[in-house]
Automatic annotation (TrEMBL):
GO terms for biological process: cilium assembly. This is Meckelin. The keyword Nucleotidyltransferase does not apply. It comes from Merops nubicus. InterPro entries: Meckelin. Keywords: Membrane, Transmembrane, Transmembrane helix. The chain crosses the membrane at residues 239-264, 364-385, 405-429. The keyword NAD does not apply. It comes from the Eukaryota. One of its GO terms (cellular component) is MKS complex.
Length: 670
């Protein structure tokens, strides 16, 4: 970054007389005033430089009363150490040939390059009297020095620089109030066609793999819905799967591209690459926009699927003894089974409601940590279009413009690194030594004698076996502590569904017959959407719902206990390939299949089981806002707000679905 481009100019007056040799440092070609340090930064090799301002016409007329012409040269050392001068060609955009602006096209073969140029001509516009103000002045309103890298160079070899100048004619009317916009820039560019080809190849290969992966997902989904017909719904589901997978493809390519330029541009000892120009970043921005749009579609579909699951809490508690109950209208009392408390079910429902949006990372910490490293530590300075890899910049030094590719590369790398460390800390330390809400929920189910039966598809879902090994959970504190002590000392059986095992969480693939039986009871259970308000619902509706609830509870009790031989199930481990592909090879035709689950995190009906999708959506949302606003702070604020909004929506609607499907009144869900 300390290498300077040594430009010198031979200056001439209006009559063509040679005046002197002059270095460009000090702002010779920069009409905008600035500090010496910032003006000289234009010639630091590898630093993209941009400067623009409005200059009063009166100042121009005073400073450039007589035009000065420049012939520009680049000074460099040969192999023997001898100094050479290379004449810098000038591309005058105002040059006309055969009444055509030949230098304004993109075809270099039509260009007419010249050598001499000027900054301000206040002489040619004077009429009759040279002592009076000119009628028109011509100003070099836009000057650009373009430096192009030789392909495949490892030592920073560049083509001769090209100076492009555009002139503006200003009609002098009132110099005190008139002003003119001028700009000066230095651009570094290289041929991006090879990078574009490699990106297209990666996009084609990964896009093809995404199609195959989406087809496998669709096949697994068809198996889980118990349908074998390819209909419109199947096609739509495939497109939704493909949208999510294609979003991942665009995201991988965008992250790879951003980190590639970040590492290879900032870490290079000898110049071998230049950053893409803003006009060359359009494809990259398009990839991010496509990734965000498709990932948003996948995220919304995920929300909808989680908000429409079927769930039921199976209560294993049995009545303790009998009570005397008055018979209405007969004036007599009869003995009946003691009622079983519903509070344990309400308790488990509340706990399930709380863990629905628990994530493997802390969203607020994630956003604040990313913002801290970007703005406080100074990682955002790595996104500047200069060759410096320093995290700090002094207030006196020139601040180069931002590169959108580098901004995404830096922010995405930080998001992924911090998220990885959070997940590592969360799974290795926090969950083990502090609190594991998900595993605690399974323990609570077992202590409450409540199992969770959950269907995310027509014939696929999850089961948490919470049947107490002590027989009863509706007991006092002393007996509860005794039960815990017996369990700690291995004086009772193990908690697992299968005898002598600890397996409590399962992925379940149920038969069509079992699903139809479940639906028959479920229709009665949800016909009035449960007791929306206990006091306001009629006695008949309430009795009907209660009867349906008890029927469902008894049916699922007997199903788990293998009572229904025509709707029995088997317990087995999933094959490794089944786990990798996320599908089941065996179809549950006669018997349902319970697959041993390692942990509840396998459940994709919770935020916890979809951390990758949520994380990528957050990164893309942050990046889209940042690319639009060029503000990491605004991106962080809006990202946290959208996280909270969607979490609130997921909690609220999830709570309503829970109340609807389980007959737990919504007033008890807090």
């Amino acid at each position: 970054q300390d290498v300077k481009l040594q430009f010198i100019a031979a200056t001439f007056d209006a009559a063509g007389n040679f005046l002197k040799w002059q270095s460009l440092e000090g702002g010779i070609l920069q009409l905008c005033p600035d500090t010496q340090t910032k003006l000289n930064a234009a010639y630091a090799f590898g630093t993209t430089y941009q400067q623009s301002c409005k200059i009063p016409l009166s100042k121009i007329l005073v400073d450039f009363a007589n035009p000065i012409f420049y012939d520009l040269f680049l000074e460099y050392n040969g192999d023997s150490g001898q100094q050479y001068l290379w004449a810098v060609p000038v591309l005058n955009l105002n040059l006309q040939y055969s009444e055509m602006f030949v230098n304004q096209g993109s075809n270099m073969n039509n260009w007419l390059l010249t050598r001499r140029f000027f900054l301000v001509d206040a002489l040619s516009g004077k009429e009759n009297d040279l002592g009076k103000l000119p009628r028109v002045i011509r100003i070099a309103s836009k000057i650009t020095i373009s430096i192009r890298l030789v392909p495949h160079t490892q030592r920073g070899t560049v083509y001769p620089p090209l100076l492009t100048v555009a002139y503006t004619d200003v009609l002098v009317q009132n110099p005190e109030t008139q002003s003119v916009m001028v700009s000066f820039s230095v651009n570094y560019e290289m041929n991006q066609s090879e990078a574009r080809i490699q990106t297209d190849i990666a996009l084609g290969v990964l896009g093809g793999l995404a199609v195959l992966w989406s087809l496998l997902k669709t096949a697994g989904w068809k198996r889980r819905t118990g349908s074998s017909i390819i209909d419109l719904q199947t096609v739509l589901k495939f497109l939704l799967f493909y949208a999510g997978d294609l979003a991942n493809v665009f995201f991988i390519i965008a992250v790879g591209t951003g980190i590639y330029w970040l590492v290879f541009f900032k870490a290079q000892q000898f110049v071998s690459v230049f950053l893409p120009l803003p006009s060359q970043e359009e494809d990259f921005v398009t990839y991010i926009a496509c990734a965000f749009s498709l990932k948003a579609l996948q995220f919304l579909q995920l929300l909808v699927s989680q908000l429409t699951i079927d769930i039921f809490f199976i209560d294993w508690e049995r009545p303790k003894g009998k009570v005397l109950k008055a018979v209405e209208g007969e004036g007599i009392t009869r003995s009946a089974a003691a009622p079983v408390s519903i509070w344990r079910t309400y308790f488990i429902a509340n706990e399930w409601n709380e863990i629905q949006t628990v994530r493997k990372i802390n969203p607020l910490f994630q956003v604040l940590a990313v913002l801290f490293f970007l703005e406080v530590v100074g990682f955002s300075n790595l996104a500047l279009m200069d060759s410096s890899s320093s995290l700090t910049r002094s207030s006196e030094s020139y601040i180069a413009p931002w590169s959108r590719v580098l901004r995404f590369g830096v922010s995405a790398a930080l998001w992924l690194a911090i998220a990885f460390l959070q997940i590592l800390f969360f799974s290795v330390l926090y969950e083990r030594f502090v609190e594991d809400k998900i595993s605690q929920f399974v323990d609570l189910c077992c202590m409450s004698n409540i199992s969770v039966f959950l269907l995310s598809h027509s014939c696929f879902g999850y089961y948490i076996h919470g049947r107490s090994v002590h027989g009863h959970a509706d007991t006092n504190m002393e007996e509860m502590n005794m039960n815990l002590k017996r369990e700690a000392e291995n004086l009772c059986s193990q908690r697992g569904l299968v005898p002598n095992t600890d397996g409590q969480t399962f992925q379940i693939s149920i038969s069509r017959k079992m699903r139809l039986h479940y639906d028959r009871i479920h229709e009665t259970l949800t016909s009035k959407r449960g007791p929306a308000r206990l006091l306001g619902s009629s006695a008949n509706t309430f009795e009907q719902s209660t009867r349906a609830y008890n029927t469902m509870n008894k049916f699922l009790n007997s199903f788990i206990d293998h009572v229904h031989k025509e709707m029995d199930y088997i317990v087995k481990d999933k094959l490794l390939l089944e786990r990798i592909l996320g599908m089941e090879f065996m179809e549950p035709i006669e018997k349902s299949i319970f697959y041993n689950g390692k942990k509840i995190c396998d459940f994709d009906v919770l935020y916890y089981g979809n951390e990758t999708t949520l994380l990528i959506f957050d990164i893309l949302f942050f990046s889209i806002v940042d690319l639009a606003s060029q503000s990491f702070v605004l991106a962080a604020i809006l990202t946290y707000l959208q996280q909270e909004i969607f979490r609130c929506v997921r909690n609220t609607l999830g709570q309503k679905n829970l109340a609807s499907k389980t007959l737990v009144d919504e007033r008890f869900l807090i």
